[in-house]
Amino acid sequence: MDAQFLVSFALIVATFGLYIGIAIYNKAKVTSDFYVAGRGVPPVFNGMAIGADWMSAASFIGLAGTVMLLGYDGLAYIMGWTGGYLLLTFLFAPQLRKYGRYTVPEFIGDRYQSNTARLIAAIATIIISFTYSVGQLSGSGVVIGRLLEVNASVGTLIGVVLIAFYSAMGGMKGITWTQVAQYVVLIIAYLIPVIFMAMQLTNNPIPWISYGEIVNEMKAMDQELGITEYVIPFTENTKWQFLALMFTLMAGTAGLPHVIVRFYTVATMKAARWSGAWALLFIGLLYLSAPAYAAFSRFILMDRVAGSSIDNLPAWTRSWVDTGKLSVADKSGDGVLQWSEIVISNDIVVMATPEIANLGILVIGLMAAGAMAAALSTAGGLMIAISAALSHDIYYRSINPHASEKKRLLVGRWSIVIATVVAGLVALNPPGAITQIVAWAFALASGSFFPALLLGVWWKRANGPGVIAGMVVGLSVTLGYIFAAKYGGFTILGIIDTGAGIFGAIAGVVTNLVVSLATKSPSKQVQEEVIDLRYPEQMTYKDGEVWMDDSSHSS
Q: Rounded to two decimals, what is the model's pTM?
């Protein structure tokens, strides 16, 4: 048991204790606490909670690694996720908050006046959130496995127990304040190593400015080695895959139920907009740092590890080889580790780089705590989304509308425990890398919720039969394309499984339009409610005119 283990272990145990303490202190006592945190979260703290909810294991652990391995092509993830957040903040979030419901399926069911639509939306929520949570739990397994020097599967099981406990205890209220603490931990953990690396490599503490110098040096090294240059676009995938992936992530972001529900936790439309603005600032700190992280990590591997004697590799390589996420082999038999003989998973790049750059045991421990915060924060939000779909949209709204508060809370808590355990079992043998699994979840959201919300908020003519057909077709097309591309090698224009959302979204929108126009129009009341969503809360649209709250006639 070395000093590194003790420092990392102490930091993680301390943060675990903090999260559990917050969840117990903010234990949900009524259903509004459990589903929407009592609608009383201040915008700046909601922005931090959104940031933590959003910056999952895929963002924290996998994003910089993906950019490092894919180069220019990896930027589709950053551009898609960031653009999607703008889309959500300006096009959907304030309008959904004004409508005032607990969940996305509840909005769809009431807006389209269809119980069937609500049930399909609830099932879609479960599928999307479950897929996403498999990636998060897999990420927590990587972190805990490395820390305790055990197999990642054992680490995953430990993560399952922790998430199930504090999510079921606190509900949305507890998770909100836990996520605020997790955001602080994870952003500090992410920024300190990249700033240290910038000072170490360029003598400039501002990585967002200095990493261009390193990129130029890598360009020369790539040419010397005769490998694909880091900054050349569309070398790993086609430009159609780049565009399809970017669209999928953008539309998927705008349709993710566990992110949208965060906008229900504030009091007003104005607070929802401010929450989005704060969240963009907090998320931007990490996303703007990821390309610098990727460049520094790749440069250090090329400059300090490649070319070393195979018998004299740094001590950190052994620990990561044991996790199964790193492979080093002297295939040429010359006794020297070549760049082409290093196979590193994109899931461990961020976690391993502080060790590779020899940044000290405290920074390495802090990184482990930050990665855990990222994986746990998003997993907690996902479990609440699944629980709300099961206990509120299916159990309360469809099966037992007379259920007591106590019984609804009990069903919600057990839903979280069962969903976490099942997702954890699937995560023991994940079907892909973390970022790939997460991309599937975004594709499913693109094909199901994005068309339903887009037309539900901005097109008054959209009706129940249209949204039912649109969600079923969009979800089916997305799932079909993912399986056909992943396991059958089928592609259109070189678009692989992670870009499947573009086909689902187009199919969903077209189907909703055609079926809505071919069937009966929504009632006048529903159409006026849709138009009313475009006005601030102080105004109400009715009978073709806009009315102020003080009953004064304005137009």
A: 0.80
CA–CA separation, 555 and 553 (whole Å): 6
C-alpha 110/C-alpha 91 separation (Å) is 19
**What's the distance, CA 287 to chain centroid?**
13
- 20: helix, strand or coil: helix
Query: Reduced to 3 states, what is the DSSP secondary structure of residue 87?
Result: helix
pLDDT of residue 433: 72
| SS3 of residue 325 by DSSP | coil
Q: 432-464: string of b/e by CB count within 10 Å (b at 16+)?
A: bbbbbbbbbbbbbbbbbbbbbbbbbbebbebbb
DSSP 8-state class, residue 39: G
Enumerate residues 6+ apart whose C-beta is below 8 A from 208.
288, 289, 292
Model confidence at 103, pLDDT cuts 50, 70, 90, reads: confident
Domain 3-539 classification at class level: mainly alpha
Helical axes 152-202 vs 349-356, angle rounded to 10°:
50
Q: Are 245 and 72 in contact (CB under 8 A)?
A: no
**Cβ–Cβ under 8 Å, residues 222 and 56:** no
Domains of the chain, by residue range, sit at 3-539
Average pLDDT over every residue of 181-196: 89
Six-digit token string for 90? 């300006």
In angstroms, the Cα distances linking 245 to 67, 407, 438 are 14, 42, 12
Q: With helix as H, strand as E and coil as C, how does 339-408 read?
A: HHHEEECCCCHHHHHHHHCCCCHHHHHHHHHHHHHHHHHHHHHHHHHHHHHHHHHHHHHHHCCCCCHHHH
